[in-house]
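Saturday, quiet lab. Running sequence design on the structure tokens for the scaffold JK sent over.
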């Protein structure tokens, strides 16, 4: 409260943003879980970050986590600010973890 639009942009990455997410835990012995989220900016149009993750245990000592992230935040001015710095930095990941 009490800041201008320009001041809010300089304060941090997530100013007046909304996160909508859904987590589904299968509640099985493998600990499978699916997580979907969307972060969007209420002030700046066409700016969002989407994420999809899936994880599960493979055995007593191994687990798997995979997912993807999509960032859409086209640069609207001469210089990129906040989420615009990550525009099209989409990625896919796969983590295979062994516990001791």
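Result came back. Writing it out in full:
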């Amino acid at each position: 409260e009490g800041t201008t639009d320009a001041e809010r942009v300089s304060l941090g990455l997530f100013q007046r943003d909304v996160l909508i997410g859904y987590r589904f835990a299968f509640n099985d012995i493998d600990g499978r879980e699916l997580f979907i989220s969307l972060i969007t900016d209420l002030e700046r149009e066409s700016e969002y970050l989407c994420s999809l993750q899936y994880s599960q245990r493979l055995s007593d000592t191994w687990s798997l986590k995979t997912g993807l992230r999509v960032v859409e935040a086209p640069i609207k001015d001469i210089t990129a600010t906040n989420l615009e710095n990550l525009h099209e930095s989409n990625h896919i990941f796969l983590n295979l973890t062994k516990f001791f």
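Notes for JK: The helical segments are 5-11. DSSP finds one helix and five strands in the chain. Ask whether to fix the surface positions before the next round.
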